[in-house]
Amino acid sequence: MTKTELISVVAEKTGSTKKNAEVAVNAVFSAISDTLAEGEKVSIVGFGTFEIRDRKEKQVINPRTREKMTAPASKAPAFKAGQALKNAVNK
């Protein structure tokens, strides 16, 4: 599902216009992004948890040159599905 398709579904389910649904979807994505950028978790009961995970520095190999390199430590967003979502998917 693309963002445009998500907006259409939200508009249909809420009886709203696509423009209003787009504003709502963008607001949710923005709130999640801003909260993660501040280093905090976003927990949505019944759906799941978004969080930032630290990745350690590691040795990698450049596939073109076979040269060993060091990938720097970084942070990555992660999502852990809640039990209700897992159950909905495994019907």
| Head-to-tail CA distance between termini | 20 Å
Report the radius of gyration as a whole number of Å: 19 Å
Mean pLDDT: 96
Query: What is the CATH topology descriptor?
Result: HU Protein, Chain A
Per the principal axes of the C-alpha atoms, what is the gross shape?
elongated
Query: Order of strands across the biggest sheet?
Result: 1-2-5
Number of helices: 3
Q: Please indicate the percent range of residues in DSSP E strands (runs of 2 or more).
A: 25-35%
CATH class: Few Secondary Structures
Order of secondary-structure elements: HHEEEEEH
As a percent range, the share of helical residues equals: 40-55%
CATH homologous superfamily, by name? IHF-like DNA-binding proteins
Number of strands: 5
Give structural notes.
The chain contains 3 helices and 5 strands, in the order ααβββββα. It has 91 residues and is of the alpha+beta class. Helix 1 (3-14) packs across helix 2 (18-37). Strands 1-2-5 form a 3-stranded antiparallel sheet. Strands 3-4 form a two-stranded antiparallel sheet. It is elongated.
Quick overview:
With 91 residues, this protein is of the alpha+beta class. It contains three helices and five strands, in the order H-H-E-E-E-E-E-H. Helix 1 crosses helix 2.
